[in-house]
Amino acid sequence: MTERRGFPVGLTVATAVALAILLSLGTWQIQRLAWKRDLITRIEALKAAPARPLAPVLDGLAAAEDVEFTRVSVVCPGLARAPYVELYGLRDGQAGVRLISACAAPSLRYRTILVDRGFVPDTVSARPPVDAGDRTPVEVVGVLRAPEPANAFSPPNRPDRWFTRDVAGMAQALRAPSPAPVFLMAETSSNPEWKALVPAPVPTGITNRHLEYAVTWYGLAAALLGVYAAVLLRRRKS
Predict the structure, then answer these.
(1) 23: Cβ–Cβ under 8 A, 6 or more apart, which residues?
(2) pLDDT of 53 higher than 90
(3) How far is 102 from 82, CA to CA, in rounded Å?
(4) Mean pLDDT lowest for which of 24-33, 35-44, 113-122?
(5) pLDDT of residue 206
(6) Burial category of 156 from C-beta neighbours within 10 Å (exposed 0-12, middle 13-18, buried 19 and up)
(7) Which candidate, 66, 64, 147, places its Cα nearest to that of 109?
(8) How far apart are the C-alpha atoms of 189 and 167, rounded to whole Å?
(9) How many other β-carbons are positioned within 10 Å of the β-carbon of residue 93?
(10) What is the pTM (predicted TM-score) of this model?
(11) Where are the domains of the chain?
(12) What is the chain's mean pLDDT, rounded?
């Protein structure tokens, strides 16, 4: 590619590419701003929301209703000693795992729901006992959450450690038939006698700086245009 009549073609192309990247990053932050505001609004509303029976909520989910961040209650037979898979997680900057078990779901469409029983830090090697034959009822109050999709940076799941909330894969590993496509994030402990297991249903300490980030990216785009215009003006005068 050559420059004609003194016009900086190469500089123009580079500027256009950089400008497109900066504008796309700013627009992405604006989209994230709307998502974060909705998330914060839902979490604030959740604080005063009563628990609803799980069955009619899941029936609404089958009818394409948005049930995320709905507080529900359900009795899970044998949950305290249920088999589990371990999902990698972070809580307050500490690495650990979240124990995921299956619970029978009294729904017209779904037979089970995966329950996130809580977080165990990596500093704790012990785990709750497992007895698949135990049917002692455990009442769980928790929040329904949709699973986060995997991305290009997500490590592959392993039988001994999961890194994404793969409903179908986890349900198969736990032999849970017809699972609901959401997780029940427990607010109440399935094992109150075992203090290392900490229910953590919603994120804590949420910040919302996306508007600030968007202004930064758009500001850089404006500065880039200013520099480009100054270069063109200088070339015209020379």
Answers:
(1) 217, 218, 221
(2) yes
(3) 8
(4) 35-44
(5) 66
(6) exposed
(7) 64
(8) 21
(9) 5
(10) 0.73
(11) 9-36+209-237, 51-186
(12) 88
